[in-house]
Fold this protein.
Amino acid sequence: MKDQVSRRGFLLWSFRSAATLALLGCSGLLLRKNSQYRLYQIDPAKCTQCGKCATACVRIPSAVKCINQFDICGYCDYCYGYYQGEAENRELRCPADAIVRKPVGEGRYEYTIQEDKCTGCGVCVTNCRTLGNHSFYLQIRHDLCRECNQCAIAEACPADAISLIES
């Protein structure tokens, strides 16, 4: 008869089990909440615009997009990232035609990136850095990122320009 559990013992065991499960659940929620602040980020100073961001990402098209930093942009008449020249100079032009030019004044234009077209290839960034004023740069769009445990782009980056930021 000693193997029988008393009502009090059963209730105590049930309460401890429920409390343990509740603590584990809360711990899981806290860990999940904290994991939302783990982000991969590209350092524009290290980025060499190698083109691997467009091809290494598990998302197609890539979660990496070109960003125009408007406070640096000169709103030029001639943008090296946008270049719309002759056929022999097509390598200077965005291959996805993702850059839109909009007049904002006499001889001045605003260049915006259509993110749905941008593949993250870095051609416009290379041209802007080489010939322009460095207002274009690549960045991982976290609203598009699949939040892989290990970023495939970071693994493929030859310049080690992508790092995990935890906060």
User: Anything to note?
Assistant: Strands lie at 38-42, 64-68, 99-105, 108-113, 136-140, 162-166.
